[in-house]
Amino acid sequence: MLSIAKPRIVFVSERTESVLAKLLSQLSWKIELIQLDNQSLTANVRTLTDILNNESDVNYMEYKSTDIDDPSRHPWAILSSSGTTGLPKGVTLSHKNLIAFLVKMRQVLFTSFLLTLIIDQHFLTTVKLI
Prior knowledge:
With 130 residues, this protein is of the alpha/beta class. Helix content is 42%, strand content 18%. The protein has a three-stranded parallel sheet with strand order 1-2-3. Strands 4-5 form a two-stranded antiparallel ribbon.
């Protein structure tokens, strides 16, 4: 999957850093590993804290994300595929997407429940007649 996506930066944890660090020499492009934990286990791997602390023009303690006007559009989840039929891809689902899905599922399940109830009622009525 790395050879398809060819990322330039990969965020790693303590568990994944050493494994990915070993793979770097086998790749045909340069990847920078950034450790999300506070201490890097491998040489030439910077930590996110070090990067943020060394940026002179950015005070990440005062960082404020951009507001999304419509709360229903706030991201709820990012679904991704491994790219079985092509390149890996991801889709951001909003809270509105989730609610629409749940409403539809409720309709489908309720309809299924009613259909089952009707069939059961018909079957029980038929059995009593025999």
